[in-house]
UniProtKB/TrEMBL annotation:
Membrane spanning residue stretches: 12-33, 45-68, 80-97, 117-139, 159-178
A Pfam family hit: DUF420
Coiled-coil region: none
Organism: Larkinella rosea
Record's protein name: DUF420 domain-containing protein
InterPro entries: DUF420
Length: 180
C-alpha cells in the first residue's frame, strides 16, 4: 500500500480540529445570510443533484465496506476517496443552493411531520459531527496509520452512512414543496 509521507505531528490533528469546526460554522453563517445572491435559475436543480450525490455516496460507502471485507485495499481506497470527494461537491452545491434560494418550508401534515423533523434534525446534527470523524479517517488512511484509521472508522462509517441515507429521505419528503 502506498501511503503519503505526512508528518504525523500535532499540527495535522489541530488542522483537522479547526476544519471540523470551521466548515459547519462557515456553512451556518453563509446559510444565515438573508439577502440571496442571484446565481441563476440553474440553482433550483441543486437539491435534486444533491439527492443524487447523497445516494451515490451511500452506495459508495457500502461498496467500500465490501471491498475492504474482500481485502481489496486499492478498490476500497478509490471508492472511499470518491465518496469523500462527493461529500465536498455536495457541500459546495448545498451552499450555492442556499445562498441563492429561500429555504423550502415542509408542508406535510399529520404523523409525517414529526418524522420529517426528526430525520432532518438528526441528519443536520450528525452531518456536523461526521466531518471530524471523516477527516480523521481519511488522514489516518493516507498517512498509513491503519490501526487509528480502523478505530475512527467504527464511528465515522455508520454516522456517514446514516447522514447520506437520511439526506435522500429528507429530500424525497420535502421535494413536493420545492418552488420552481
Amino acid at each position: 500500500m502506498v501511503s503519503l509521507q505526512i508528518d504525523q505531528s500535532k499540527k495535522y490533528s489541530r488542522l483537522i480540529n479547526i476544519l471540523a469546526i470551521a466548515i459547519p460554522v462557515v456553512v451556518a453563517v453563509l446559510l444565515g445570510i438573508r439577502q440571496k445572491v442571484d446565481l441563476g435559475s440553474w440553482t433550483t436543480f441543486l437539491p435534486h443533484i444533491n439527492a443524487v450525490i447523497n445516494s451515490a455516496t451511500a452506495v459508495l460507502l457500502v461498496v467500500g465496506l465490501y471491498f475492504i471485507k474482500q481485502k481489496n485495499i486499492a478498490a476500497h481506497r478509490g471508492t472511499m476517496l470518491t465518496a469523500f470527494t462527493l461529500g465536498f461537491v455536495f457541500l459546495v452545491s448545498y451552499v450555492l443552493y442556499h445562498l441563492s434560494n429561500e429555504s423550502t418550508p415542509f408542508g406535510g401534515q399529520g404523523l409525517i411531520r414529526p418524522v420529517y423533523y426528526f430525520l432532518l434534525i438528526s441528519h443536520i446534527s450528525l452531518s456536523i459531527v461526521v466531518v471530524w470523524f471523516v477527516l480523521r479517517a481519511v488522514y489516518f488512511a493516507l498517512s498509513g496509520q491503519i490501526a487509528k484509521h480502523k478505530a475512527v472508522v467504527k464511528w465515522a462509517y455508520p454516522i456517514w452512512l446514516y447522514v447520506s441515507i437520511t439526506g435522500v429521505i429528507v429530500y424525497f419528503l420535502i421535494a413536493p414543496y420545492y418552488r420552481h
